[in-house]
Specification:
single chain; 136 residues; mainly alpha; 6 helices; 2 strands
Length: 136
């Protein structure tokens, strides 16, 4: 949830934070906000989310990205404010066999915000991998 800590049960806070995930805040439908709100009010789920976040901070994998040998697709929202585009460019440099695609007018979750465009990029990437595998 970023750099602030909400009071438990603050639906408006959760709605605003969910909207920040997307370029178009309308993507954060009531159903999605309800789902996030439900997760943040489940004690066990919150403990797991906090543990995951702490682990991500403690275990920065930047120095290990160059060990990824598999072809890697990085599909990134050009308007991602959670993990900004400069991070994608750094990942692309660090992962040897990676391919970076930026999606305009898209935030942190391209697969949710622009699923057709995301799927087209993914399909093209997988098709290319399949063609490469067929030649080998």
């Amino acid at each position: 949830m970023g750099d602030s800590y909400p009071k438990r049960g603050d639906y408006e806070y959760i709605r605003k934070k969910t909207e920040l995930t997307f370029y178009d805040p309308a993507t954060a439908t009531k159903e999605l906000v309800d789902e996030v709100y439900s997760m943040t009010n489940n004690r066990i789920k919150v403990i797991k989310i906090i543990a995951l976040a702490k682990s991500a901070i403690r275990n920065n994998l930047g120095e290990e990205l160059n060990q990824i040998k598999q072809p890697t697709l990085l599909a990134w929202g050009n308007n991602d404010t959670i993990t900004p585009p400069f991070v994608a460019k750094e990942f692309n440099k660090l992962i040897p066999n990676s391919e970076l695609h930026f999606i305009d007018k898209c935030g942190h979750a391209p697969m949710m915000e622009v699923p057709d465009e995301f799927n087209a990029i993914l399909h093209k990437f997988l098709k290319k991998l399949n063609e490469t595998a067929s030649i080998a």
